[in-house]
Design brief:
2 copies of one chain form a homodimer.
Chain A lengths: L16 E11 L4 E8 L11 E2 L2 E3 L6 H12 L6 E8 L8 H10 L7 E9 L13 E8 L10 H19 L12 H12 L5 H11 L2 E7 L9 E5 L1
Parallel strand pairs in A: 1-6
Antiparallel strand pairs in A: 1-2, 1-4, 2-3, 2-7, 5-6, 8-9
The structure holds a DNA duplex (27 and 27 nucleotides).
Chain lengths: 237, 237
DNA sequence: TCAAAAGTGTTCCAATTACACCCATGG
DNA sequence: CCATGGGTGTAATTGGAACACTTTTGA
């Protein structure tokens, strides 16, 4: 717009790096968690470690969905995990912060190259999740989604937007059980909804609603070993 | 996944081209239209012309939203047009069709480079739309969204997904008036909804609903020069 | 006076909300 | 027998769906 045509328009002849970042949600019966990684460290020098959402460059011949699946499978051995693309983040300066420069210079073939990222979010059953060493990550850990530390790049914004999208989809498609074990009680499910939506729900109304949607089905089985009336167990239909 | 580590993982060291494609919707009181362009032609040889949705590579230092805005402004001089990012299309073979190879070899600095595109859709008031010559396009024209010819690349899929997203957002956010002139009647608005949603609506219920949402406001003005009872005019609130 | 679209209300049913007590179990 | 969470119903309100006739204008 502001360029005069004395200079040719700056076509992006260098290309861009394209990455996929996965906001992995997990639920521990009390808090909604997001999986963070420590950015991997060079073997030689020591960088100030930063936290980030797991992500990696998209490989040649790999679709975006495949890249997201790969990233998830490098972190755990789970299959069939819920994954959804939710937004592309393409600010030209999104990796230009001082805090991110050294890491890029260490790990990227072309550290000056612009990086576009496609955001996915993913729902995993925390009970079954066993972290694995991933090529792109150091240690991994879970943090409360309502208490996220300062992250690398624009990852705080990415997590925030993922949460908004998750709320939307929870209401529309009732995908909550993806975050719970195979067998769960309606109280667990309700608590999950309350924490994701960040508001209290009425027990009787919640049950009526969930049962009407027919996304879950009652098992012929009850909770065991609890110090109160054991609850009916449900699983996804 | 299937790679053994005898070969290094094929990192995308070439980078990708990143483009933005805009599905521009317009409404002519009868049909919902999509703006297509003829792919631009080289001055020398003559290619079989293909149709496509307007789009262009994202420039250096340009965000995705800015690129989408620029593409739209190169096609028309309208400002303040409704624009929304809706999906990233990243299949590694999305531009590998035979039909697209010659065009890429003619117009791209790196025709072999993988191209990722970010899909936007846009709502314009057809009444105010005056096409302009755009750097990336030959002729432009409008076609019925329910009768789209075969397009370049994966643009048929892009248009289809844009329509699904538009339907969603029309119901949720009542953005329909973005496709109508400043002043419109409720019958026009209803017809627009019917065509986008592809189903008939009840007149009385439609009016009750729209007025309850308070997204439109009645003007002190009526239709003129119609051969029936003139309708109340409305504008967006 | 006719044709054409504008405009308007009511009834019925389904969904949403608010609300409080008894029950089954383990310790 | 007590503490803990599990489990249940009803009434009031609100929103959605179905449905048909009268009005205003220009020709």
């Amino acid at each position: 717009m502001s360029k005069k045509n004395s200079e040719p328009t700056p076509k992006n002849t260098l290309g861009m790096d394209v990455s996929v970042d996965c906001v992995v949600f997990g639920f521990d019966n009390d808090t909604l968690k997001v999986l963070l990684i420590e950015q991997k460290q060079p073997d030689t020098v020591h960088l100030k470690t930063q936290n980030a959402v797991p992500g990696d460059l998209v490989l040649d011949n790999e679709s975006l969905d495949e890249a997201a699946k790969r990233i998830l499978q490098e972190l755990t051995s789970l299959k069939g995990i819920y994954l959804k693309q939710f937004h592309a983040f393409g600010d030209p300066n999104r990796v230009r912060g001082l805090k991110d420069q050294q890491w890029l210079r260490t790990f990227r073939v072309n550290p000056e190259r612009r990086v576009l990222t496609i955001g996915y979010y993913s729902l995993v059953k925390l009970s079954e999740f066993k972290p694995k060493a991933a090529s792109f990550a150091g240690k991994t850990y879970w943090v409360d989604v309502y208490n996220i530390p300062s992250l690398a790049f624009d990852h705080n914004e990415i997590v925030h937007k993922a949460l908004l999208m998750l709320r939307h989809e929870l209401m529309a498609d009732h995908i909550g059980f993806e975050l719970l074990p195979e067998k769960f009680t309606l109280s667990q499910l309700q608590k999950l909804y309350e924490i994701i939506l960040d508001k209290k729900l009425d027990k009787r109304n919640f049950r009526k609603n969930i049962l009407r949607t027919e996304t879950v089905t009652a098992l012929e089985e009850k909770q065991q070993g609890v110090l109160h009336k054991p609850a009916q167990l449900f699983s996804k239909k």
